[in-house]
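Final report, closing paragraph on structural work. Over the funding period we assembled a curated collection of sequence-structure pairs, and we close with a single example.
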Amino acid sequence: MLQSATNIAVLLLCYASIWFVIGMLRKRNDVADIAWGPGFILICVYCWATQPYSPLSTLVYILVMLWGLRLALHITWRSRGKTEDFRYRQWREAWGKWFVLRSFLQVYVLQAGFMLVMSAPILLAAEAAANPVPALSMAGVLVWAIGFFFEAVGDYQLSVFVRHKSNKGDIMQTGLWRYTRHPNYFGEVLLWWGLFLVVLPVQQGIWGIVSPITITFLLLYVSGIPMLEAKYADNPQFQAYMQRTNAFFPWRPGG
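Its predicted structure, as stored:
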């Protein structure tokens, strides 16, 4: 597994460098968001090509590639005709003369590092000889499917809401968004916990937990919910929405 991780680290560094060049040419670092899902597809393709097949590894590759492809297509569609995401614009302004170097290191290389850490379930599955697929792994697929539903449906509902000009300036509060302020983030976290359960029965499978822990920490405390909600700190409608709706876990709205 160590050798595979080393090879993938080199592969991801090259991948990050390509997207860095694309970002500089297009003058928008939010292309890194598009690169996130396909980066994991690249890892799966590499493992599929270099490791022996097993039912468990094939299952994990398919789940990850389905997630990565949908996410990349969604973000690409969402960003069409729009300016650079506000979070990246803030960094562009704050980094000044160090913008190019800090972009490479703090956006693209750092993202590649997170990809490497979160690829643990893929690497574990790639070296597993689980045949047939354990019952716990199938339970993990169910958890993954629920997470995929929340992420995909939440993203779709928001995209439909945003497309209607009559909703401009309003806060999405219907559908899954009625029960959690971030159904897409909840789904993202849940599906990675599902992948962890899929690989847990294999040898050293417990190490797969670094993946869901990483994404949970990032979305709840770093680049997900905190940065997004800071944008609406002075929005009365959003503040009222916060009072009656859970930030993360779906629950019936209060008030």
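The chain has a mean pLDDT of 93. The two ends are 51 Å apart (CA to CA). We thank the funder for supporting this effort.
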